[in-house]
């Protein structure tokens, strides 16, 4: 399989790799206080979103560009949780004049989004799920059980989900937040977008497969 694969397709060409890109169920919470502490997927209503993609280009929030400042008050490692964003330091653009000032953004919160994917599994393979890019952080649940947490938007996050899987239908749930305390380390000159913005891959491998070299 590896010999037949081209450079452009080798990530997806193995029978041991399942690409989970495509439409996922999606629930958006513009006010994080409305996110249930106990999230019952049977009673929540979902729309859908394509993966990979950024929320801001799918109608959830708006693109936000900033250089060496933050979208929230600077108080590391604290970030806004459920309350509105407070007063922030800003250098407005040419339309407002470029000079230091304090602004209080309107209707800006630490938005949250819940992704859900259902998939059929069979056999006894070891299963590792790989998120190649999620901004800003990720809480992962499989079949209602907490698996793990990751932050660092442009780093790969991998989880061994073998103990949480079952034969038949399985539910993968990913909670993504707009900011986390890791956002303090991502103060680049760029648009600050959010979501699962790179591939999601499921590795289905043997117990003794070579993982890396």
Describe the structure.
By secondary structure, the protein is an all-beta fold. The chain has no helices and 16 strands. A 6-stranded antiparallel β-sheet has the order 3-2-7-13-10-11, with no helix packed on it. The protein has a 4-stranded antiparallel β-sheet with strand order 1-16-8-12, with no helix packed on it. A hairpin with a 2-residue loop joins strand 10 (137-142) and strand 11.
Structural topology:
Layout: E1 17-19, E2 22-29, E3 47-51, E4 65-66, E5 88-91, E6 100-103, E7 112-121, E8 126-131, E9 134-135, E10 137-142, E11 145-151, E12 157-160, E13 168-177, E14 190-191, E15 195-196, E16 200-205
Antiparallel strand pairs: 1-16, 2-3, 2-7, 4-14, 5-6, 7-13, 8-12, 8-16, 9-15, 10-11, 10-13
């Amino acid at each position: 399989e590896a010999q037949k694969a081209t450079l452009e397709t080798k990530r997806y060409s193995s029978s041991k790799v399942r690409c989970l890109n495509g439409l996922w169920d999606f629930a958006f919470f513009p006010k994080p206080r409305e996110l249930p502490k106990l999230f019952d997927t049977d009673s929540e209503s979902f729309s859908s979103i394509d993966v990979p993609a950024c929320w801001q280009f799918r109608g959830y929030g708006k693109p936000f560009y900033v250089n060496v400042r933050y979208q929230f008050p600077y108080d590391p490692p604290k970030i806004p949780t459920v309350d509105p964003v407070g007063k922030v330091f800003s250098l407005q653009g040419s339309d407002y004049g470029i000079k230091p000032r304090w602004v209080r953004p309107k209707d800006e919160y630490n938005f949250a989004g819940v992704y859900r994917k259902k998939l059929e599994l069979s056999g006894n393979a070891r299963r590792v799920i790989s998120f190649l890019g999620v901004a800003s952080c990720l809480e992962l649940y499989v079949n209602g059980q907490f698996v793990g947490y990751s932050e660092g938007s442009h780093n790969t996050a991998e989880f061994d989900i073998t103990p949480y899987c079952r034969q038949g239908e399985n539910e993968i749930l990913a909670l993504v937040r707009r900011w986390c305390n890791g956002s303090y380390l991502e103060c680049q000159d760029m648009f600050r977008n959010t979501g699962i913005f790179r591939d999601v891959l499921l590795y289905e491998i043997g117990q003794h497969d070579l993982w890396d070299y």
